[in-house]
Design a protein that fits this description.
- This protein is mainly alpha-helical and about 280 residues long.
- The chain is about 65% helix and about 5% strand.
- The chain has a three-stranded mixed beta sheet.
- α4 crosses α6.
- The longest helix has 28 residues.
- The chain is globular, with a radius of gyration of 23 Å.
C-alpha cells in the first residue's frame, strides 16, 4: 500500500523493533488497526509491514475527513514511539517545510478570495509564529535543534540522515559533519557501523587531528591552553555527568531542553572559534 506524505515525515522502526512487532503480531494478532487517509496509510506503516511479514491480515480504519493528517500522524507517533531529541528534531525540520508550504498556500488562497493574506483563508492551521518554532513546539524541541536538523536534511548524505533517524548519533554531532563531501559522510557512517559505534566514528570525524607544533610555543599560548583545560576540568568536577545534574536539579522538560540547547550552542561556538583560528 502507499504511505501518506505525513506518515513519511516520521522515522520507521529499527530492524530489531520491527522484528519484535512481527513476533507480537504472530502471537497476539494486530491489536491496533491501521489508519488510512484518502486510501493511503496515515498511521501504521510499521504495523502494515509487520503484518505482511507475519502473514496476518490487517484491519483498517478510514480517517479521511476526520483529522488533519499531519498533526494527527505526529501526535499518534509521539504517544507510542520513544523518539530521542535528535529524531524529534529531524521530524520537526520536515514538518517545518510542510508548515511553510501551507503558509504560502494560505497566502495565495487569501489573495484569490479578495483579501490580504491569511485572514481570508479557510484552512484549519493558523499562521501565528514562525514555521520553525511551530514545528519545534509540535515535537517538543528547540528552534535551534530544528535549524540543525534542517541543515542535516539539506546538506547531509542519505546515510548520515539515516543514522539520526535510527537514533545512532545526535543531530548536533551530525550537523558539524555536513561541510564534508557526501561520499565522505556516508563512508564515516558505514565505517562506524562496521566498528559497532557509529556515534564515536561521526564525532571523531568532526574533530581536527591534534598536531604538535614544530616551533616553540609562546608562554601566552601555554597559559591560554592551561586556563581552558582548567575550566573544563572544573566543569566536569562540579557538574559530573549532565544526566546527574538534571536529576539533582529537578529541571522540568522545558528547562532540560533549554539547558541542552545551550550546551549545543557552546559546542557550535567552540567549533566556530576553532575554524577561525585556523584561517
Amino acid at each position: 500500500m502507499e504511505f501518506h506524505p505525513a506518515a513519511n515525515l516520521l522515522p520507521m522502526m529499527s530492524d530489531d523493533e520491527l522484528d519484535e512487532l512481527v513476533e507480537d503480531i504472530r502471537q497476539n494478532g494486530l491489536q491496533v488497526p491501521i489508519e488510512l487517509y484518502e486510501d493511503k496509510i496515515l498511521d501504521g506503516r510499521n504495523r502494515w509491514m509487520a503484518c505482511q511479514m507475519a502473514e496476518v491480515e490487517p484491519d483498517f480504519v478510514d480517517m479521511t475527513g476526520e483529522v488533519e493528517p499531519y498533526v494527527y500522524a505526529c501526535s499518534q507517533n509521539l504517544k507510542r514511539r520513544n523518539l530521542d531529541k535528535s529524531q524529534k528534531a529531524l521530524v520537526a525540520a520536515r514538518f517545518r517545510d510542510h508548515f511553510e508550504t501551507e503558509a504560502k498556500e494560505r497566502m495565495q488562497a487569501g489573495g484569490r478570495e479578495g483579501g490580504k493574506g491569511v485572514q481570508n483563508s479557510s484552512h484549519p492551521i493558523d499562521d501565528t509564529g514562525k514555521s520553525r518554532d511551530k514545528a519545534g513546539d509540535a515535537l517538543g524541541v528547540s528552534g535551534f535543534s530544528v535549524d540543525q536538523a534542517s541543515k542535516v536534511i539539506k546538506q547531509g548524505s542519505k546515510d548520515l540522515v539515516n543514522a539520526v533517524e535510527r537514533g545512532e548519533v545526535s543531530v548536533s554531532a551530525v550537523a558539524l559533519k555536513t561541510n564534508k563531501p557526501k561520499d565522505e559522510q556516508s563512508k564515516v557512517v558505514r565505517d562506524g557501523r562496521a566498528s559497532g559505534n557509529t556515534k564515536k566514528a561521526v564525532v571523531a570525524a568532526t574533530k581536527p587531528p591534534v598536531q604538535n607544533p614544530e616551533y616553540p610555543v609562546s608562554d601566552g599560548v601555554k597559559q591560554l591552553l592551561t586556563d581552558v583545560r582548567s575550566m573544563l576540568s572544573m566543569f566536569r568536577h562540579e557538574w559530573k555527568k549532565p544526566s546527574d545534574v538534571f536529576k539533582q536539579s529537578g529541571f522540568d522538560p522545558k528547562e532540560r531542553e533549554y539547558v541542552l540547547d545551550q550546551f549545543e550552542r557552546i559546542e557550535i561556538s567552540f567549533t566556530e572559534i576553532s575554524k577561525g583560528l585556523r584561517t
